[in-house]
Amino acid sequence: MPLTDAHCHLQAPELAGVLPEVWKCDITRWVVNGLHPSDWPQVAALARSQPRVRPCFGLHPWYLKDRPATWLEELEGIVSEHPGCGLGEFGLDRWMQDADVADQLSVFKAHWHLGLQRDLPMTVHCLKAWGALQEALEAMPLPQRGFLLHAYGGPVEMVAGLVRRGAYFSFSTSFLAANRSAKRAAFQQMPLDRVLIETDAPSMAPPSECNAFPMTDPATGRTVNHPANLRAAAASLAELRGVPALELEGILEDNFHRWWGRDRRGIV
User: Fold this and answer.
1) What is the CA radius of gyration of the chain?
2) What region, left, alpha or beta, does residue 88 occupy, with left being phi > 0 and alpha being psi -120 to 50 degrees?
3) Residues 93 and 125 sit within 8 Å (Cβ to Cβ)
4) Segment 179-224, tens digit of pLDDT
5) Which domains does the chain have, with CATH numbers?
6) 0.90 exceeded by the pTM?
7) How many C-beta atoms lie closer than 10 Å to residue 153's C-beta?
């Protein structure tokens, strides 16, 4: 069955050496998210060279302070150059040090309105800012196609309200860790027609006992999440929901196309 990584960063330097083997993986497609204008050209280049890449361009809240003054014009330009792309990742983050939530909201709304105007799939980052996100969504028009909350780690109590506003939720390989039971509990209760899976590679690696493709960054010694770990996310989510693996994979594929739409270039 087809399998989509709904959120990853294959442009990251930590993955440069393994991309040839990544393209041989039995993954159908990767949604590759840019983080800053400086890496958007790399995301675009991956999409041009690999038809299974779905490019997204966005400004991550961690990198707002060093954004160029022309970032929004650059975003509008690169989106125009890549029909069938998405926006992301962008969002709200109170976990980061010295978070300027007012500035984050301004950038969030700029992405949101561009996504609505162009009818683009959007990928939202949210960490410890769920109240602010809820207020923002209540005050803005909602995209008919919905939007993705990647690696959803918010309260289970918020799921129903977010579903009403069009949210999809991606299950991360990192949620397999023993201390992430609350995150798994949320995915036990959300509607299956709103669920996707992701690696966030090279970040958010699964725990070592679930990591079939262990990697470390030679420069830092940190664990690197290999994109092929997506299969672990799919298998674990199927077990968590008590659904046969092939049945779940079919559901995930339908969910992806409902959110993203069929590729405008005619590529599945």
Assistant:
1) 17
2) left
3) yes
4) 999 999 999 999 999 999 999 999 999 999 989 999 998 888 899 9
5) 4-260 (3.20.20.140)
6) yes
7) 18
Residue located via tokens 């984050």:
104
Distance (Å, whole) CA 172 – CA 132: 23
Beta strands across the sheet bearing 195-198: 4-8, 29-33, 53-57, 86-93, 122-127, 147-149, 167-172, 195-198
Amino acid 57 reads F
